[in-house]
Amino acid sequence: MIGLDANVVVRYLAQDDPDQSAAASALMDELTETNPGYLSLVTVVEIYWVLRRSYGVTAARGGELLDGLVHARELRIDRGEVVRAALTAAESGVDFPDAVIAELGRGAGCRHTVTFDRRAARSGAMHLLGAARPGR
Asked: Quick check: 6 and 47 in contact, CB under 8 A?
């Protein structure tokens, strides 16, 4: 098993750099179920973030691409259950990274995760933390 950095997987998915995309594709083609690639949870979130921010991929398409990685027999995904739960939450409008954070908290036994991010709170993934009181 070999670890894969986000930039290798993004080049494979985007096919936007002739040399790096070719190298990434050749590597991905060599992976097998018995000799898989490994994606850490941080790498998975970074892949999503780069696709959204740098490549303008929609949230839905980003989720589809991650789902394909999660189900690839040639890949092992760190905390795969967290990623799958976050992808399910993302289908209902929760931002994938927020869903990962909330799911990790649940798995650690947290009652909930608090945030100042109104969108994350509206989605139900987190609870909005009220404004701090003056002097505190």
From this structure: yes
